[in-house]
Write the structure tokens for this entry.
Amino acid sequence: MSILAAIAVLAVLIVVHELGHFLAARLQGIYANRFSIGFGPVIWKYQGSETEYALRALPLGGFVGFPDDDPDSEIPPDDPNLLRNRPILDRAIVISAGVIANLVFAYCILVIQVGMVGVPDLSQPGVLVPQVVPESSLVATEAGIKAGDVILAIDGQDLGAGRQAIDSLQKDIQQSANKPLELTIQRSEKILSVKVTPEVGKDGKGKVGIGLQLHKRSPNLVEAFGNAAEEYERIIVLTGKGFWQLISNFEETAGQVAGPVKIVDIGAQIASSDPLSLFQFAALISINLAIINILPLPALDGGQLAFLLIEGVRGKPLPTEIQQNVMQTGLVLLLGLGIFLIVRDTANLPWIQKLLQ
């Protein structure tokens, strides 16, 4: 289920991006005759009144097609509603709409997260217990642990704050089956000491029957928008630094570039360990998609915007043949890179590594 959740997140972000292009065209009255998720052979398609909607075999993105260069199109070549016949600004809106859609969607996700779920609280020490799960184990219930408690230390060792705190607590509990542990707990203004003995779970690891959480919710809508903006800015800054590192130190950081398989694998790990963090994962990937697509590279939105900029400076577009050759070369390179990343990341999956040993 965690893998399906991660795939669903990635699919939604691709749909959002392509929907941005599609709606920007349709709302301006520009023809759009194809809406595809993926590339290559068609797996499923539906022919609407004006647009063919399709799902394709290679999960490397998607595209919105326009009838401008379709030799079978019955639309007159001088029709003002063809994309190529529109002013530069109209075309720029259509091309950049996918990036804008991803950026707006990322912010909306963060607003939902901070308002309904909360954002990871990396500043407060300890680990929040949002719920006690007696169906999983009666250890926590019998020890008197309650929802809302904050576990500060285990056997006298402070857990610290952030992700490290929850990882440390989980590890200690899982490795202490049938061994007593002393938890230092904060309940409101009181500091309590609680002894628990994790019982053995079906997987052989210790468990006590509590949920763990690092998330802090915003109490009202106004604060949710503000906190979402702060988290949005933090993610953009971190993403920007990551891209700069990749450009400035390519040899050492190129191996960290992730394809769809690696992204799904990371998402699946997040979904299995902390499903609430999928919101933030989706926002992060959405922002990354936006930044990647705005780069001035052939076959990407940024490359098409670069052609529009050249057209604005020259007063006329580059010859169609030059544009097509550049875009086709870029598309081949992009697909080649995508296939390489899929093969590499698939080969590096733990279960694949075990089969190869």
